[in-house]
Automatic annotation (TrEMBL):
Protein name stated in the entry: Response regulator
PROSITE patterns: RESPONSE_REGULATORY
Organism placement in taxonomy: Bacteria, Bacillati, Actinomycetota, Actinomycetes, Sporichthyales
Keyword Cytoplasm: no
Record InterPro entries: CheY-like_superfamily, Sig_transdc_resp-reg_receiver, ST_Response_Regulator
4-aspartylphosphate PTM sites in chain numbering: 54
Amino acid sequence: MKVLIVDDSRVMRQIVSRTLRQAGFDDLDLVEAENGRQGCEQVRSERPDLVLSDWNMPEMSGIEFLRNLRDTGDQTPFGFVTSEGTAEMRETATAAGALFLVAKPFTPEAFAEVLSPVLG
């Protein structure tokens, strides 16, 4: 399975990759993007099975990225991995079509819990 990790921080993309392996998802094909605009391009070219996206990024935020995908009819499973996890943000994410929102700091156990239904 292919997972697209979208975050403007290279270090955070590496942490998400490492946490995926620690959660037991060590056979994934991981691709990366630095913001929502690049994420849209990667979804079209790479056809990932899941998108893990930060919320706050330059050029195009995570929520704008998700709304752009859904507006074009793309239904790729999408989850947020972000530093903020307010009830309002969770509501906004769900209303836009996100499957989950994992707030930082996160653990391999938190990843396993939300990703197992999607990645098997």
